[in-house]
Amino acid sequence: MCRWLAYTGEALAPSTLILDAQHSVVAMSLNSPLGAETVNGDGFGLGWYPDAAPGAEPAVFRSIEPAWHDQNLREISRAVRSPLFFAHVRAAAGPPIQQTNCHPFRHDRWLFMHNGSISGFGTYKRDLVLDVDPSLYPFIQGTTDSEVLFHLALTHGLMDDPVAGVGAAIRRVEQVGRDAGVPFPMQGTIAVSDGSTLWAFRYSTQGRSRTLFHSADVPALREMYPDAARLEAFGDRAQVVVSEPLNDLPGVFLEVPESTVAVLDPDGYHHREFLAA
């Protein structure tokens, strides 16, 4: 389907993770060992919150070029510094390759991206779209199930309570999907942020979700690997959630459990059950 990465912590050039890491996001776009598709070359997106501008609306750059081929991505990701950013590489599973179908999606100060699918989406797309609040409907620009899911979550209160909003949207997808004869409607991992907190969800109706990992605390990693020069690029509050580990060092990336929402905020990383049976 896709691969994605979300970073929060001290301001950092996105290129540090999406270009320069051992198994960077751009490397995943060419070869994704843990992905449903090996190659994710149907466009990409970068969304970032400006440094030293709390509450500011995020900037978004999206393209239908393969991430490994786009010089503008290299220029922007090296020039920008951000305390919280999203990166996404896409493997189109039906909806056309167009800029409005590339992640992340933005509404006001919120960013959203998704790896996975709503199974049988075309069969009951109309029912889900008609559930979107009329005030939000005009903001749906593309044709993907992910963008509809985002607007369903906004409809169900994501901006007040992201966990409850995403949960209610997924439950609605499952209800409508099952009514249409689809046994396992929801699959995927989701990232949501308001610029200060990052929520990362791993959930599927079948209980066999796409892979998702989070990084261990940087101070602990420095104790584990005192000679690892690459850690010098990160501050003590740096946290990453990513579809696949960015390097091969044992203990650096830990798997996010199934049916879980991971929360990364100024207090660090913690997680809890999400839509558990």
UniProtKB/TrEMBL annotation:
InterPro entries on file: EgtC-like, Gamma-glu_amide_hydrolase, GATase_2_dom, Ntn_hydrolases_N
Ranges where the Glutamine amidotransferase type-2 domain occurs: 2-277
CDD domains documented for this protein: YafJ
Coiled-coil segments: none
Keyword Thylakoid found: no
Keywords: Glutamine amidotransferase
Keyword Hydrolase: no
Domain of life (superkingdom): Bacteria
Pfam family for this entry, one: GATase_4
Protein name according to UniProt: Class II glutamine amidotransferase
Species assigned in the record: Microbacterium insulae
